[in-house]
Amino acid sequence: MSSITKYFQLNELHTTFKREILAGFTTFISMAYILFVNPSVLGAAGMNKGAVFTATALASALGCILMGVLARYPIATAPALGINAFFAYSVVIGMKVPWQTALAGVVVASLIFLLITIFKLRELIIDAIPSDLKYAISAGIGLFIAFLGLNDGGLIVANKSTVVGLGSLSVGTTWLTIFGLIVTSILMVRRIPGGIFIGMFLTSILGLVTGLIKMPSSIISGAPSLKPTFGVGISHIGDINTVQLWVVVLTFLLVTFFDTAGTLVGLAQQAGFMKDNKMPRVGKALMSDSTAMLVGSVLGTSPVGAYVESSAGIAVGGRSGITAVTTGLFFILGMFFSPLLTVVTDQVTAPALIIVGVLMAQSLKHINWGEMEIAIPSFLIVLGMPLTYSISDGLALGVIVYPITMIAAKRGKEVHPIMYALFFVFIGFMWILNVE
User: Is 0.70 surpassed by the pTM of this model?
Assistant: First the structure.
């Protein structure tokens, strides 16, 4: 145990093994929904849902364990939301590309991803982002996941007249979210250790007692076979032979790159890992998620990336790689206890996401709001992420405007050359998404 404590620097990080395990479990509970959402989304593209379920669990587990052991960060990975929808609805259904070819596109994007990680291009880009924008990224992700929680819990819903509006208070599950939010808020204010996890547990119990959450039909089930999707992407790489399909590959690459970069920076800010505007061991963190993305594409799932729900584990005290390793082990167990995961509904995780949003929004105080050349791009990132429903889109808005405002303030020489390069990359990125 002493060697584990030393390797993961538990004493230096002022944490304990018990707290790290709790944090890992909290992160898993917060993102366990992907085990069911990803098969549903990719299933719409004609992929076998059972195989995708197993591929999702294994790819997530691998990414988490690598992140924990190699990079020693409490950051979990899994197939990213948003890019899986692009895979299914835009590429396969919209462009009528066979899912086998689309999966081959993910394999190619993963290989490119791995190469630019090995040559430290991703690391250079992350280090080049100014500290104010990094704080904006953290706060923006906080607003984004809080918005997710409010929507998942039924408190904020779509409204044709006002775009969004308050949800119906006559729906029982909405009150389940309200209960969880109040209980979790009280626990957090009272500084009760594990308050977010306790809040989710009590909300689940209330849901089961009131019948708002159905009792699981069984406890254990075997893991579905990977045969329908395993290796399919590799065998169809030769199908990527048109400009249109290379655009698809580029889009997979760009969206995953900037979603993961933005998420890693935001979570590192929340956990206090950033030193002199740099993220220690970022190369190992990027290598971990690149490897998981490649293996996931071979197993049969859409691109893997760092998950904002890791902030839930960080919020309860997770600071070392043990948190991520624990999350990964629970993903493996999740393959065999999938019926039990249905108890953790959107209304159970919604309060946790909202509270974590509050914690991450505290980064706003570090942004230099007195200088408009900094305030404007930072504000666009913070507001852009929840309103575009995309971390990468919000990041794009700020990165495009930043060089412009800095030049206008006659501070263009202070802008890192990579930020100028990203200006053009993001304009192309936005154009590609708009065209597609």
Answer: yes
**How does pLDDT run across 266-296, given as a tens digit for each residue?**
888 888 888 887 889 988 999 999 999 999 9
Number of folded domains that form the chain: 1
Closest CA to 77 of 42, 117, 27: 27
How many Cβ atoms sit within 10 Å of the Cβ of residue 71?
23
Residue span of the structural domain in which 373 resides: 2-435
**Of 151-160, 243-252, 341-350, which has the strongest mean pLDDT?**
151-160
Which residue has tokens 């689309």?
102
Output the CA torsion sign for 95, 97, 99, 102: negative
